[in-house]
Amino acid sequence: MKSYHDLEIYKISFELFIETHRFSYFLPKQELYELGSQIRRSADSINSNIVEGYGRRKYKNDFLRFLNYAHASNLETINHLKKISILYPEAIDLSSDLSNKYDKLGVKIYNFIDYVSREWRL
User: Fold this and answer.
1) What sign results for the dihedral spanned by CA atoms 7, 10, 13, 18?
2) How many CB atoms lie within 10 A of CB 96?
3) Cα separation, 101 vs 120, whole angstroms
4) Phi, psi of 25 (to 5 degrees)
5) What is the pLDDT of residues 7-63, one digit of tens each?
6) Helix (H, G, I), strand (E, B) or coil at 111
7) Whether pTM exceeds 0.85
8) CATH numbers and ranges of domains, the chain
9) Which residues contact 19 (CB under 8 A, 6 or more apart)?
10) What is the DSSP letter of 6?
11) pLDDT tens-digit profile of 27-36?
């Protein structure tokens, strides 16, 4: 692994960030700076914490801490998507699709945390 670009969780979280960011702009205008902003920030946080954690990979505990932040932001994003699906039923198909993708990402992040915890050596 030469770069964080090689991490599957980075690749998936980056693509999901782009998809979520675009999705958020289809929310009603009054949500643009409320729920829309929150979901954009939480989706960005997943990806950014993976990158920052990788930058601290020489310090296993720092790496794990940032991966845990990424996992927590993933859960936050899923929660925002649930709110959107309830408040805006017309967005339920897209929000459910994104939520399923974030569920799968959450499993991958969790498994990577477990791997780093048990096996990480530089």
Assistant:
1) negative
2) 14
3) 26
4) -80, -5
5) 999 999 999 999 999 999 999 999 988 999 999 999 999 999 999 999 999 999 999
6) helix
7) yes
8) 4-119 (1.20.1440.60)
9) 98, 101
10) G
11) 999 998 899 9
Tokens 């949500």 correspond to 31
| Helical axes 8-24 vs 60-87, angle rounded to 10° | 30
Amino acid type, 80: H
- List the one residue out of 15, 12, 7 whose CA is nearest residue 52: 7
> pLDDT tens-digit profile of 80-118?
999 999 999 999 999 999 999 999 999 999 999 999 999
Total residues belonging to the chain:
122
Coil, helix or strand for 25? coil
- Name which of 74, 65, 2, 71 is nearest 41 in CA terms: 74
